[in-house]
Write a structure and sequence with these properties.
CATH class: Alpha Beta
CATH topology: Rossmann fold
Oligomer: single chain
Number of strands: 6
Helix content: 40-55%
Distance between the termini: 23 Å
Structural class: alpha/beta
Strand order of the largest sheet: 1-3-2-4-5-6
Number of domains: 1
Order of helices and strands: HEEHHEHEHHEHEH
CATH architecture: 3-Layer(aba) Sandwich
Strand content: 5-15%
Number of helices: 8
Shape: globular
CATH superfamily: SGNH hydrolase
């Protein structure tokens, strides 16, 4: 989207954004456990952390069992045959840089980020706050580098931004402008992730309509969360694989996550087919 178009439309866009914020209800984060274990006791252990904004926190459903993190961990344990210890650290409204700050605070309090794999769900608030895509990628790079170098994380998987241009709850031209920004951010994320073997841009495919969305019309509902959790879990299962069960009494071991294959630029878009979150309200 050109700067000229934004400037010409800016009075209308501001009015639409304010009106959208005023009419949409603020849904709470999902209740329930934010950590746990799935998988058989004899399976080799794997620790994962899910971090990010309201989509990571489960806004749009009542309980974490219908949100993202818990079903993701359960499906990953089943598909990879690993005993998955999972934890969720997320808060509504966070940008990528603010997610980094939240994790740093968690690290300072606990003394460590105990995870081999981290799933990051951010980006919409980068678009909301009009953060340039280059700065957003730099924030992702800083987060991934800190997780890898300071925390010993083996792999970081970034969920793609949704196609905001398909979200029916945003009026035009706000939907068009915001959607173009989201696509640009997601392309930049995919291109950057393809240059690294320790980071992936998760491909997702999801057909959306009002029946799979939350009551506010833009956060995921339970069906959307279920599909996204399933797709991310399958992506991670391909990375971690099925490991042999250690001998009885053998101490647990950490097993490196194999580097992900680099995808061609043609697959960077992540495969979303519709939008389940808008850009005007902070997530």
């Amino acid at each position: 989207m050109s700067l000229t178009a934004k400037l010409l439309l800016s009075p209308l866009l501001v009015a639409q954004a304010l009106a959208t914020r005023a009419r949409l209800p603020r849904l709470p984060e999902a209740e329930g456990e934010r950590e746990g274990v799935f998988g058989e006791p004899g399976w080799r252990p794997l620790s994962i952390l899910i971090a990010g904004d309201s989509s990571a926190a489960g806004v749009g459903v009542a309980h974490q069992r219908d949100a993202l993190a818990m079903p993701l961990a359960e499906t990953l344990a089943e598909r990879a045959r690993r005993r998955v210890r999972w934890r969720l650290v997320a808060r509504s409204g966070l940008t990528t840089a603010q997610t980094h700050e939240l994790l740093r605070a968690e690290h300072a309090e606990a003394g460590r980020i105990d995870a081999e794999v981290v799933v990051v769900v951010t980006g919409v608030n980068d678009v909301v706050d009009q953060i340039p895509s280059g700065r957003a990628v730099a924030a992702r790079s800083a987060l991934a580098n800190w997780l890898r170098n300071a925390c010993g994380v083996l792999h970081v998987a970034f969920a793609p931004l949704p196609p905001v241009h398909h979200f029916p709850g945003l009026p035009q031209p706000l939907r068009w402008i915001a959607g173009a920004d989201a696509r640009r951010h997601d392309r930049a994320l995919g291109e950057w992730a393809a240059t690294r073997g320790d980071v992936t841009h998760v491909p997702l495919e999801l057909e959306l309509n009002r029946g799979v969305m939350a009551s506010d019309g833009f956060h995921p509902g339970a069906p959307a969360y279920r599909q996204v959790a399933h797709d991310i879990a399958l992506h991670l299962a391909q990375l971690v694989g099925e490991a042999p069960v250690p001998p009885h009494g053998a101490p647990p071991q950490r097993h490196p996550v194999p580097p992900a294959r680099r995808r061609s630029k043609g697959t960077d878009a992540g495969g979303w087919s519709s939008s389940w979150q808008p850009t005007t309200p902070a997530r």
